[in-house]
Amino acid sequence: MAATPRFRKNAVEAEAVEAEAPSTGKGAPPDRKHPVDETLPPLRMFTSGLQHVAAMYAGVVAPPMIVGPAVGLSAKETAFLMGASLFTAGIATLLQTLGFWRIGARLPFVNGVSFAGVTPMIAIGKDRGHDGIAVIFGAIIVAGLLGFVLAPYFCKLVRFFPPVVTGTVITLIGVSLLPVAFNWSQGGNAAAPDYGSMTNITMAAVTLVIVLALRKLLRGFLQQIAILLGLVVGTLIAIPAGITDFGALGDADVVGFPTPFHFGAPQFEIAAIISMCIVMLVCMTESTADMLALGKIVGRPADERTIEGGLRADTLGSAISPLFNGFMCSAFAQNIGLVAMTKVRSRFVVAAGGVILVLLGLVPVAASVIALVPLPVLGGAGIVLFGSVAASGIQTLATAALEKGENALIVAAAVGVGLIPIAAPDFYHAFPKDLLVVLDSGISTGCVVAIVLNLAFNHWGRPADADGDADHEPGAADSEQPKDPMALPVAH
User: Which residues make beta-bridge pairs with 330?
Assistant: First the structure.
């Protein structure tokens, strides 16, 4: 292998610094902070956090925007749901980044409303109004508590995520998100008359070029917030183009608190609970993959304890969200792309984003300002963000010894199965609806295939002293680099 990818080098260096005793006199001083734990000056903290909010905003408000009308809520009630989702996403993000006790991954990890639950929630609450929302919230509370209990056991799956698996899953995360960016670039609403218009797509292309140009021309801090600057410039250009909607700004309240149980006390129905528990397991699988990806990118590989804390924050955030009229929370992979692109690894930057989300939930008029960014503008920036995630996955696969054993076949099959929901959205149309919760997630199906095939080809039936572990680096790399920390659980 000609060169070691930068994130791998950082991971090895970070582990070396943490492992060395102060008395050795080697490496960095013992009090040196890892970049994940560094704090930035207030202005940089705020603008970098705002950039994370801008990248995730549309993803947070989209599920309540879809579910609200489907269950029969009015436009004003749907707007209330959107504000509550911002508020609860902020709380969940603070649980992840700051944490307490053994809760929180303490990585620059963003949480928001999961898309995985949209279809089941519509099926549960369709045309039932407030009762439908109450049943949805009751099911999410139970699913969140169940996930919290399962987190210490679920996190042990990390041993089944060597580079051949993590690289495949990270690549699928990026590729699976790209259609979201393409949809935004066309306008976001397939029923709208201007969906896919020349104006929308041109605006997305202009934003993409602006972001790339800013990344090339700017230096230092300004280069790190190139995405945010690109969104601002793109929005300003979109105003004369006529695709910026100021209606939400005029209708928004100045202050509004997501009153607990606004739609009534939660109701508990067995079928709804089972459905949302399945969604929770899907979200935990995706969050595990996202934490492994983020750990690689920031140079602090996620071990069992990190994943356990992250899953606890996910599930606790989900259990708390319905109290404030929010939905199930899970990882937002698009923000991983932002971390990879900007190289800003501080978890406190994302915590600042969490505070901004809480404030947006309390001040609807401020949330409406963020909402001024047209979806085509967000789509142009999203192509870069989501493509960065896929690129990180390819970097990981470069360390996975694809020339050994059946590793290349594992990647081929897992990527192929994972792309089915993207390339052929109706492929599973004849399957039971409950199975679609898993099958419609290319990340989940690809992850399961990669894990099972890795076990089948590289573990089951192989003697302990077989010619090297297939997850080990080949050739000269073995003498130059330690084994990838993702291959086995890392003890704390």
Answer: 112
